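Entry 14. Ran structure prediction on the chain below.
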Amino acid sequence: MSNRMALYAVFGSPISHSLSPVLHNYAFQSRKRMAFYLPVECTPDQLGQKMDAFDKLGGHGVNFTRPLKEQVLPMLAARDVWVSDAGAANTVRITANGWAGANTDCEALFRLVPFASVRGSEALVLGSGGAARASAAVLNRLGYRVAAAARRPEKCDWAHERVSWDDRLKPRGWRVVVNATPLGQLGESFLSEWPVPAPGGLAVEWVYRPRQTQFATLARDAGSVVIDGLTLLIEQAALAWHFWFGEEGPRDAMWEAVRPWL
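Output, structure tokens:
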């Protein structure tokens, strides 16, 4: 590998499901960038050591997936407003002062979700990790009142209200329901029953493998608009390029790269 090759990566555990290396490497080739993007299996207790090693190898930027979006915060020398709002970062770049962090999950969702038609409209977020925190930060800014349902409700201090996991299916007329858990993801547990928005509402699915999840299918069948996980993946990846290079990534090339998973 050339010494001029800039290294980028996605850190997480598990990491084998990630399509980020596929879409970023294809995008690098399309823009003729001397860069390479690799997956790095990394647990929270390994994060500091692996980030130091990546820096010494010449790493320029990193994306984070679960369970690292919150754990990386103490390592940041600077952070954008979305990181501060969400208490989580999914993208970093190296600077002269150390790692700077952004949350392109938040920015992507903010671009795709409409403002609440009535301030205080109710939204339900499933999960308690970094994607859930990002979703709540965006929904708050857009004027929704956010409730959380999670198996670890003590981690949902960012919600206006906590709904017990067993009560998540009780009808309530949610305008937005977000699946920010890995449930339904390839290799993860599946649920047969999901809360869905009221007809005409919005369902947000962070899982992207498979693209047509049970949650997305049920929500669509109930008359909801669906923002699927692959759309979110491409959008946050294009915005990560803006953070790294000062230009938004080539969305058309990224979609072409993931065509086998459509």
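The domain at 107-229 is CATH 3.40.50.720 (Rossmann fold). Will compare against last week's run tomorrow.
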